[in-house]
Amino acid sequence: MGTIISKSLSKGNYRLLLCSDEWTKAQAVANEITTSIPAADVEALQCSAEATWEADIIIIATPYAVQQEVALKIKDFANQKVVISIASPLNEAERGVTTASEISAAEELQKLLPYSKVVKAFNTTLATEVASPMSEEKQIDVFIAGNDTEALQVVSELLNIAGFNPVIAGNLSVSRTLESHAAFLDSLNRVA
What we know:
By secondary structure, this protein is of the alpha/beta class. It has one domain (2-191): Rossmann fold (3-Layer(aba) Sandwich), CATH 3.40.50. The protein has eight helices and eleven strands. The strands form four sheets. A five-stranded mixed sheet has the order 3-4-7-10-11, sandwiched between helices. Helix 7 links the parallel strand 10 (141-146) and strand 11. Helix 4 runs parallel beside helix 5 (105-112).
């Protein structure tokens, strides 16, 4: 999802900083973007602290299992920044949500990054839809949830530029529903 989101955002006027534990993968994505969009401003970085320090908006496109580890790495540099959570806490064996029903992965991330503005996005959107946000001239809806009104507006604008139709679903507690829906979509994909 991180690769697909990066490619979608490269169409906008953003400076993209790609960071991965496997730097060669981030560099390959950066090269692919600049090959298809030569004017894109994209750079692969090895250091999450450096990428987070420089960024205004941070998208954590990692599996839920490493969300806490990533949050601890960026905590000191993510203060007052918008942090987009796309993680779905899916249990591979049972194909269900692994967090307790009274908290979501996004809410856990907000607790780990108390001075950041966490927004949940992309949970109800399949990777194929993210790769092609326009379907027969109709934008794909992306539900977002968050507690900060300004952060929701920033993420809405970001999604619009990337070709999506942002739908504000409510505050961050709504991410529980969005994550449960993601588990349902995941189970449908496995059956198909």
